[in-house]
Amino acid sequence: MQIRDYNGKGDWSAAAVQARYADHAGRHGVEAPRPLALKVHEHGDVRWIYPIMDAVIEGILAGDPACAVIGVEFIEEDRKFPFGANLKARTARALRQSTLSDALSIRIRRRVVDMLIAGNTPREYREYAKLLRKTGFRELWPRLEAAVPRMNRHAMRYYRYFEAIQRRTPAVCPVVTASQND
Fold first, then answer.
1. What does pTM read for this prediction?
2. What is the C-alpha to C-alpha distance for residues 147 and 151, in angstroms, rounded to an integer?
3. Sign of the CA dihedral running 12, 13, 16, 20
4. How far apart are the first and last CA of the chain?
5. CA–CA separation, 45 vs 169, rounded Å?
6. Of 161, 180, 162, 158, which Cα lies nearest the Cα of 172?
7. 34 backbone dihedrals φ, ψ, rounded to 5°
8. How far is CA 8 from CA 68, 139, 151, 156, in A?
9. Which residues does 174 contact at the CB level (< 8 Å), separation at least 6?
10. What sign for the dihedral angle of Cα 47, 50, 52, 56?
């Protein structure tokens, strides 16, 4: 039988994600841990094993804090995955719809801002930008404003998006005036 496993290797194999989930569930006091079952499809002599991140995304949407931690770890990962752009965008969308701890919000802010400063704006960055808008970026705005790669048109597109948010909503990021800098 031919097996097509679309899960990652090492830390992102199905078994490793399930083990990490069990650890996070214990730390966060999840009373009814999710099974994080793999979706498998067989046809003839071919078996497709779909990414375990589908189950993690369902857990994030259900409000499982251990799944949220794995979701943040996933968007922090730079490696390429089968269906990676789609999975990372869906993960960011699910995180945006859930209640996040302060620690996870800080990790998300740092990751999204660091990506923009590095000029790393893959397809899923659109969802990352919306997620950053939800978590707020006040403390990182001066760094972002100073270090954004102005010659990178893709990075500047998102920078202008964040700048418009900052101008419209001073509560997200207050404008610093010249007298405040003295």
1. 0.88
2. 11
3. positive
4. 71
5. 57
6. 162
7. -80, 150
8. 19, 34, 34, 32
9. 138
10. negative
Instruction: Output the DSSP codes for 77-89.
Output: --S--TTHHHHHH
Q: Where are the domains of the chain?
A: 1-99, 101-174
C-alpha to C-alpha distances, 127 to 2, 16, 93, 146, 166, nearest whole angstrom: 35, 26, 6, 23, 18
The model's pLDDT over 111-141, given as tens digits with 9 standing for 90+, comes to 999 999 999 999 999 999 999 999 998 889 8
Spatial distance between the Cα atoms of 152 and 5, rounded to a whole number of angstroms: 36
Residue recorded with tokens 């968007």: 75
| pLDDT per position as a tens digit, 78-123 | 998 889 899 999 999 999 999 999 999 999 999 999 999 999 999 9
Tokens coding 182: 């003295």
Tokens 């893959």 belong to 122
Which tokens belong to 83? 């269906």
Which three-class secondary structure state does DSSP give residue 40? Answer: strand
Q: Residue holding tokens 């939800």?
A: 134
